[in-house]
Amino acid sequence: MLKVLVTGAAGSIGINVIKYLLAEGKYEITALDLRNKQVIKKLKKYKRRINLLYGDVKDNILIDALVKDQDIIIHLASALPPLSDMKKGLAKIIDYDGTENIIRAISYFNPNCHLFYASTTSMYKEKENVSVKTKIELDEHDYFSSAKYDTEMLIKDKLKHYTIYRIPLVLGNPLKDPFMYHVKKNSMVDYIIKEDAAYAFVKGIKYIDLLNKKTFNVCANESILYKDLLNKIVLATGLTFKFVLSRTFLDKDYYSPVCSDKDNLEEIIHYRNYDLDEYLRRLKISCSKRKFAKVLAKIFIKDKS
Q: Does the pLDDT value for residue 118 go beyond 90?
């Protein structure tokens, strides 16, 4: 039975990674995340079926002990925008330094361990029809993308067994999951539904030899104008103060450009299960009681059109 460590296990992708790993029924799973009320609440229902640990990826002693005994590490722990771009150094500490700690442990204690790393397509900026071969030109103030790119370079330099997934705008439930509201409204964007992103990591384990030492853009099969996507989501969930404040005050500095090679991973592992219509249908059902908020959403969108 393969042993799999999932960092950032309580995140919107991490929780679904655990669900899919459990559904496979053939992995010994260790989940790692920071200890707080929200994380404990999300993970407690799995505590009898997985090894559940609370801790920090920057903890050398903890990571050494964990990595020694793993076959696969799905590394999702990250400092997400907009917070990571507001506070200089945060992304480096969590994304780069935390991954460096894992890499060090793999190199010393378990060189055959395979690392799946969650990176970002945001590093392509506003370029069109990008691919993993596109030259990366980073803004010194884009701390999140810079940390992800530097971490990719470190992984490629130090490890023999790795796969890098560059993740675009992730669609979950904006009322519960993090959501990148700070995108320019007239940008064409690629996206991924959170369940499909999670399944890509789990399904990738079966194709580990084909994916080794490769980087992929992990996206849905179609692109959409961000303004249209946002309107559809807000109509499904109803208007929130978070939406209004984010769209009004946040700098529109998050990018999720269209990827010309978005089908490459799908052709190998076939990880896509949900389309946008199905995502919106499920979102509407989960927010069915927010009737007044949905009326406000219609008024707000009509006013802005």
A: yes
